[in-house]
Design a protein that fits this description.
Elements: H1 2-24, H2 48-65, H3 101-114, H4 118-122, E1 129-133, E2 136-140, E3 142-148, H5 151-159, H6 164-176, E4 183-189, E5 193-195, E6 201-202, H7 205-218, H8 233-243, E7 248-253, E8 261-263, E9 266-268, H9 274-286, E10 293-298, H10 303-315, E11 320-322
Parallel strand pairs: 3-4, 3-7, 7-10, 10-11
Antiparallel strand pairs: 1-2, 4-5, 4-6, 8-9
Helix pairs in contact: 6-7, 8-9
Length: 323
């Protein structure tokens, strides 16, 4: 019995040893990696139906373009009868070129006035300029310079060290400093009035040249007086100035507010009070569609004249410059 148990245990050990030995030599078979499929195509892809449609369309186009439309050429035997008379001999006229810009401008303005277009042209937009006159600066689009050229003004200016040539130079310098599209006017007065031009004109090169000649030749002495004039002296000058519809006025004066009067064949020049004068000026300004600023350049003003001119400047938002 004991021997059988020993044999059984021995057999069991042998079986275990045999199984262990078999496990050492077991070969595990792992399936290898499968090759990924490759997708390939031929370089030329043929689309028989599309190619056929293209060939049919191309053939139709070539057929339509092969036969251009033919137009018959118009012909004529003669346009005019052959027995026309010969042209008469035309006189030969020598024509000289016109280079006087001022002459052309005056003619153009006259034609515009005859056609009723002068007012329309004057209403065109002007450019603003900063005008400087004897140190007083003002900006405006329509600038009028009013100069008293009486003997008293010339003498008073001379006493203050200002020659008449310098006054003329200041006038020319002010006009030269304006933009070409800024409109300006010059009013000369003593008891009568004289204008550089009846209307405001642009500060073009031609007009600047004309101002130089006009100032040297005409801005002096006393303009003629017409007996039918309503206003004289400062009132006449400012009446004309406001009729030009300015937005800036420079007034050169000695501050003597007198008015020409004829009584019994005798001519007198009585002074007028400032109240009457400023009332007239306000009436002139009310008739203008533009609100004007009035600056005064005064030479050798007495106390009364200086006070009057200061009140005039305040009434029209201007500045007084005295010498």
């Amino acid at each position: 019995m004991r021997r059988w148990r020993r044999d059984t245990i021995l057999y069991a050990v042998l079986v275990q040893v045999a199984l262990l030995g078999l496990t050492i030599f077991v070969v595990v078979i792992r399936p290898g990696a499968r090759e990924e499929p490759a997708f390939t195509a031929k370089h030329t892809v043929r689309l028989p139906q599309r190619e056929l449609e293209h060939r049919v369309a191309l053939a139709d186009f070539q057929h339509a373009a092969a036969a251009p439309l033919r137009l018959e050429t118009l012909t004529t035997a003669a346009l005019l009868p052959p027995d026309l008379p010969a042209l008469p001999a035309a006189p030969r006229v020598e024509v000289e070129a016109l280079d006087d810009a001022d002459f052309l401008a005056r003619d153009a303005q006259a034609l515009l006035a005859q056609a009723g277009l002068a007012g329309t042209m004057n209403g065109l937009k002007s450019a603003a300029s900063t005008a400087a006159f004897f140190g007083v600066e003002a900006t405006g689009e329509r600038i009028v310079l009013v100069v008293n050229t009486s003997v008293s003004v010339r003498n008073r200016a001379k006493r203050r060290g200002v020659s008449w040539q310098r006054i003329q130079d200041e006038v020319i310098r002010m006009v030269d400093g304006l933009e070409s599209s800024t409109r300006f006017g010059l009013v000369q007065f003593s008891q009568g009035v004289r204008l550089f031009h009846d209307t405001l004109v642009p500060a073009t090169t031609a007009n600047r040249e004309a101002v130089r000649a006009w100032v040297r030749e005409s801005l002096r002495g006393n303009p003629p007086v017409r007996e039918d004039d309503v206003w004289f002296g400062h009132e006449a000058a400012l009446a004309v100035a406001f009729q030009l519809e300015p937005d800036v006025i420079f007034l050169v004066t000695d501050g003597v507010l007198d008015r020409r009067e004829v009584r019994g064949g005798r001519i007198t020049y009585p002074r007028i009070d400032f109240g009457s004068f400023i009332a007239s000026v306000r009436r002139f300004a009310a008739g203008s569609p533009r609100e004007a600023v009035v600056h005064v350049i005064g030479f050798d003003l007495d106390a009364r004249a200086q006070a009057d001119m200061q009140r005039l400047c305040r009434a029209f938002n201007g500045r007084l410059r005295t010498f």
